[in-house]
């Protein structure tokens, strides 16, 4: 599996470490978040069979966090972008 | 004896496997063998439908019939039975857990394994050759002493071995002065061991079928019929089947299937690879796990060394892994058993693990009435097969969990009662 790092280009998967689902958003106001909000954020995962949005860390490369859309059935990396940018226009295809 | 009685006896003798049936079959060129289970058409309705014809699904059907007298049951399998993780594991059976919620459940499973071949009248080749966890530091010995004591307090056998005792048990490990991670000792569970994965599936299938359960292969569930929060049946590639109760036992594919019933689960699907070498003369006596990296090895009855290690680490449904993990696993294997270096790999494969958020299984009720969940098996699915079926059958029959699977309820996450054996937190690829 090869992952295109926005800074280093296409690199082997062994250079990266995996954080997981990039679709999760921490409750914005912890004081007001309900038990269901926390349950959803901490434990519930969409875990799709197909395209999945996820965070990877180029741990033995440039050490940058990146956002990746990857197919969990074929392992095809569909798009990547720096972690602080959305996977839209300008994402490395 | 009348002719009718003779015929009945003959039929029973044919169905029951024994030395006598083999000898008697010798008189007729062994042509008396019949298929071990039927291939029925699905009926329009059942009392219970089990989705998933792996070890867990078939065991559930078997115990529903045997323990609870519920025989109007169908097991629906999208491929052929045993074609998923039941055939993709390393066949290890053990109950060496630290935490109560797991310990009693897996110990019950081990006890069922001990009588399983006799119970099923099918040789599942359960071999109690021992599972040995290696320790490579004093700290690790302390940790093993703690786990061993916890096991013994829970009535489970455990022995803390010194380096010399480990050497006696498993002489082919690296005890040289050059070993990168010298062996300090180990924790041994002698009652643990391995079993034959296919035989478990076939034995439960045959036992369930003999009690009237319909095993329906090539029948994929595509949706659910749910009204007012109660399940009424399933849609399948072979038509609609109504059912009063539906149990899911589909391992790594639980998220996708449960989504069709509107459920969202604390599960990620991950790859776990395993490998088998060319056959050798006896080299490894029991099951040995490395303590300075993730590696476990045993030797099959055919002589092949069966081993595995970590998950690949990323979400996947591919049933095939990547080579960096193969290399990683083999590196660890070589540091434990340097004499593997010139061995050739025969096959390697990957299964899709339903990794739960605390590393322990989920088995019990779901928020939908009449729909039951059996998932989140992580690495532990194979050894759990008998207890999984046993407790799941109880849960379905009584619409309430058994004491053994009460701690494994889905709602433990929102209640804060997670069972996190490794203490890694809600990070599925670390369990």
Task: Describe the 3D structure.
The complex is a heterodimer of chains A (93) and B (431). By secondary structure, chain A is mainly β. Chain A has one domain: Folate-binding superfamily (Folate-binding fold, 2-Layer Sandwich), CATH 3.30.2270. Chain A is built from one helix and six strands. In chain A, the strands form two sheets. In chain A, strands 3-4-5-6 form a four-stranded antiparallel beta sheet, with no helix packed on it. Chain A has a two-stranded antiparallel ribbon with strand order 1-2. Chain A is globular, with a radius of gyration of 14 Å. The model of chain A has no long low-confidence stretch (mean pLDDT 93). Chain B is an alpha/beta fold and 431 residues long. Helices cover 31% and strands 25% of the residues of chain B. Chain B has twelve helices and 18 strands. In chain B, the strands form three sheets. In chain B, strands 1, 2, 8, 9, 10, 11, 17 and 18 form an eight-stranded mixed beta sheet that branches. Chain B has an eight-stranded mixed beta sheet with strand order 5-6-4-13-14-15-12-16. In chain B, β9 and β10 form a beta hairpin. Chain B is globular and about 70 Å long. The N and C termini of chain B lie far apart (62 Å).
């Amino acid at each position: 599996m090869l992952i295109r790092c926005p800074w280093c280009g296409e690199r082997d998967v062994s250079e990266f470490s995996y954080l997981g689902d990039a679709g999760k958003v921490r409750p914005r106001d912890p004081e007001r978040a309900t038990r269901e909000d926390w349950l959803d954020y901490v434990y519930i995962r969409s875990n799709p069979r197909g395209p999945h949005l996820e965070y990877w860390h180029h741990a033995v490369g440039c050490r940058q966090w990146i956002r990746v859309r990857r197919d969990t059935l074929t392992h095809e990396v569909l798009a990547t972008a720096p972690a602080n940018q959305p996977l839209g226009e300008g994402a490395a295809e | 004896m009348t002719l009718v009685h003779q015929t009945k006896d003959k039929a029973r003798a044919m169905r029951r496997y024994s030395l006598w049936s083999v000898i008697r079959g010798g008189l007729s060129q062994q042509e008396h063998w019949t298929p071990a289970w039927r291939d029925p058409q699905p009926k329009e309705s059942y009392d219970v439908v089990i989705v998933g014809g792996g070890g867990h699904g078939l065991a559930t059907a078997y115990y529903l019939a045997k323990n609870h007298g519920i025989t109007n049951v169908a097991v629906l399998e999208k491929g052929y039975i045993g074609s998923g993780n039941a055939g993709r594991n390393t066949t290890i059976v053990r109950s060496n857990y630290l935490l109560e919620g797991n310990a009693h459940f897996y110990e019950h499973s081990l006890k069922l394994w001990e009588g399983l071949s006799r119970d099923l009248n099918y040789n599942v080749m359960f071999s109690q050759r021992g599972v040995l966890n290696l320790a490579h530091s004093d700290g690790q010995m302390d940790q093993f002493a703690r786990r061993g004591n916890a096991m013994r307090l829970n009535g489970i056998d455990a022995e803390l071995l010194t380096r010399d005792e480990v050497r006696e048990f498993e002489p082919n490990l690296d005890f040289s002065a050059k070993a990168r991670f010298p062996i300090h000792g180990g924790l041994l569970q002698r009652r643990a061991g391995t079993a034959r994965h296919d035989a478990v599936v076939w034995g439960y299938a045959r036992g369930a079928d003999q009690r009237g359960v319909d095993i329906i292969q090539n029948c994929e569930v595509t949706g659910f019929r749910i009204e007012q929060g109660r399940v009424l049946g399933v849609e399948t590639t072979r038509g609609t089947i109504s059912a009063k109760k539906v149990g899911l036992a589909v391992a790594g594919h639980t998220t996708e299937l449960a989504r069709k019933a509107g459920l969202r689960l604390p599960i990620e699907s991950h790859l776990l690879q395993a490998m088998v070498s060319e056959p050798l003369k006896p080299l490894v006596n029991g099951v040995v796990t490395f303590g300075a990296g993730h590696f476990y090895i045993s030797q099959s009855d055919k002589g092949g060394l069966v081993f595995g290690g970590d998950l690949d680490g990323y979400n996947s449904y591919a049933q095939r892994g990547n080579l960096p993990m193969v290399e990683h696993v083999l590196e660890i294997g070589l540091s434990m058993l340097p004499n593997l270096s010139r061995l050739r790999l025969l096959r390697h494969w990957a299964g899709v693990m339903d990794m739960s958020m605390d590393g322990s299984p989920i088995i019990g009720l779901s928020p939908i009435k009449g729909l039951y969940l059996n998932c989140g098996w992580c690495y532990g699915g194979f050894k759990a097969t008998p207890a999984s079926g046993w407790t799941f059958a109880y849960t379905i029959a009584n619409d309430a969990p058994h004491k053994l699977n009460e701690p494994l309820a889905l709602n433990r996450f929102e209640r804060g009662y997670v069972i996190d054996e490794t203490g890694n937190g809600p990070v599925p690829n670390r369990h």
